[in-house]
Amino acid sequence: MYSSKVDAMTVSTTFTTQDMRAAILHHLTYTMGKDADHATTYDWRMALSFAVRDRIVDGWFASTRKSYEAGAKRVYYLSMEFLIGRLLQDGLVNLRLLDDACEALTALGLDPWQVISNEPDAALGNGGLGRLAACFLESLSSLGVPAHGYGIRYEHGLFRQSFVDGRQVELPETWLQQHHAWEFERPEARYRIGFGGDARDAGWDPAEAVIAAAYDTPIVGWQGRWANTLRLWAAKPVEAFDLDSFNRGDFVGAATPEAMARTISRVLYPDDTTEIGKELRLKQEYFFTAASLADILRRFEMEHGDLRKLPEKVAIQLNDTHPAIAGPELVRLLHDDNGIPFDEAMDLARSTLGYTNHTLLPEALERWSDHLFGRLLPRHLEIIDRIDQAHRATYPSSSVTIREPGVVKMGELSFVMAHRVNGVSALHTELMKSTVFKELNALHPDRIVNETNGVTPRRWLLSSNPRLASLITERIGEDWVGDLEQLSRLEEHVGDAGFLSAYAEAKRANKADLAAWIEAEHGIALDPAMMFDVQIKRLHEYKRQHLNILEAIALWQAIRAAPDADWTPRVKIFAGKAAPGYHFAKDIIRLINDVAEVVNADPVTRDKLKIVFLPNYNVTLAERLIPASDLSEQISTAGKEASGTGNMKFALNGALTIGTLDGANVEIRERVGEENFFLFGMTADEVVARRKIKDHAAKAIAVDPRLAAALAAVRDGTFCAEEPDRYAHIVQNLSGPDYFLVSSDFTDYWRAQREVDAAYRDADGWTRMAARNTVRSGWFSSDRTIRGYMADVWGAEPVI
Ligand SMILES: *Cc1c(COP(=O)(O)O)cnc(C)c1O
């Protein structure tokens, strides 16, 4: 029966639809305490989740056992964010139980998709960085590498976004109001995390403390052969309750310790591109890093003992500088707590740590005031000073500093305390070497390596695009799921008319599904024959959603001027959240919504151009949109997007990219072929040169009447008659400083878009280009990325 212990390898073959039905009913009855007549969709979804979780747990234990037996090196991925999204469908797909589950639910009189989509989307991250961490965990499990992800169990993930009169409104995210089906609380795994107090005699006497309490979620890999653990820390009070206050009648005061402690894991900071410098953020960073390191050392000492062997058995990866405190904390644990000499402790820590840099934006590089830092982490500040002194003593002629008057520089600290520092695309890594870490790279020429990002093909193709996945499997078998480069075996099919028409049909059907959903949810009717032109990502000036909407305005004006010309109908779909304090980005959202209202109501252009901004972008929405996209907008100012991973998901699913030579776009274009990619815009070098030209924006506007007219329409209130000046500041920016060079890249963007129009009108030609994108995107699997880290950074190997 379903509860019997089965070998992890045989999960999928021994479990039938009948077993699934029995398991669901068992959990509905005995876990949810409901009978079938009174169960809600929530009850059914939970029952199904527990049934699936049971199937994962045996393999999970088997993985733990094999890791201990092998004494293998373990990988620890420390990340402030894990944007995991929904886990039920992922689990069903990886265990290959999706069909059984759907049949079982249907037999029980339920709509399977209604049940599966009842799950909240776990938004414990802002965007690309957090989603990368989630893809990495899945790949580590699919490859059978002993690994743990460590992060924070935010009570409230990224805010939910809605629009009121076109404006973004933020609502609290409440995923934990329901029981989280996948996690196991671990009351035995608790650590006391100190803050404040005094540092003295190479020791530390914290003034306050909170408890970090572990919650484990199993992350199952492809075919259920391996499962790793995502361990998230929740902050709890050392003492839940102040009884003295309570007895004095101060009931609020009595609950204060609890409220204070819990604040640390209460909410995710909703901004991933500006350094915040807030005390609570530093507390969050130290809280999860210290708890994770304590846990890692506890496991290491149990397995191996001698801390001097740490780098042989443990690899710790820092996802950006958010866990950079790991360097000094590890030195503190080794030196202060375990008596290892300081220099040796520093070497051990460095050999264990790797650091991934995610951005070159200066405003995103973390720096802390040493006043705040010293108040919260006095001993760490001393240790950082010593690390800084040691580095300067070793390289006396270098001007690199980790400390400057008043500040602690986390980027430099991370670099100095890691044996490998990696960028996330070839271009980004080169720019890192020539800009932010130029001097450090000269001192440590072997330290910087490149590991171009990737995405997991299980979620981003097999699960989210079943039509295309089946077509691929029909042609080349299903080994591609675990080895995505096998997609290249489809190359010969791209000339085959039968394959191409099936490929086109899969895309058409995906578009029809999306159109039906948009009509049902948002009341906007779309013709699936239109080109679906999609830009979905965080709102940021460097990502240039405003370039896209300006082009839409110019197109609208052009269609109105010649309505009978042969236009290629398209819908521009946007989605993305703006950081709540980023007013310019929020105004871009409002502008897009205002333009949509005017353009969509225009009878002259109505069947040729539509604009839709879908609210609340998250992983689930991405899974819905990407398989139905024709055109992928990857139009950042060159040199600003470190890699991008959205670009990879689109190419894999057969959307053609219109893009700049930025981040991984460069590598996507190299692989899919330049004839299957719409390139425009300045290069990173040209961007730097262009900014030096006086009045570059005004000059660009002066030579492009279309751009001038589009800006004039924004300026004169065409889209906001009730408040004509609403967007004056945007026009002013794009005509003046225009740091992100929207105006200077507009003309070439318009040109490339018209090439897109022409290409789309040749339906067969378009399908061939789209299919080539799929066939040649196998390299962008996060399995490949993880293999790169194992070889270049971690020195770890799979156990299966
Ligand atoms: C992939 C993904 C991202 C990253 O998108 P980019 O276009 O690379 O910025 C952000 N958010 C979600 C929900 C994603 O799935």
Automatic annotation (TrEMBL):
It is an enzyme of class 2 (transferase). It catalyses: [(1->4)-alpha-D-glucosyl](n) + phosphate = [(1->4)-alpha-D-glucosyl](n-1) + alpha-D-glucose 1-phosphate. It comes from the Bacteria. Belongs to the glycogen phosphorylase family. It comes from [Roseibacterium] beibuensis. Keywords: Carbohydrate metabolism, Glycosyltransferase, Pyridoxal phosphate, Transferase. Coiled coil: none annotated. This is Alpha-1,4 glucan phosphorylase. The lineage of its organism: Bacteria, Pseudomonadati, Pseudomonadota, Alphaproteobacteria, Rhodobacterales. Its cofactor is pyridoxal 5'-phosphate.
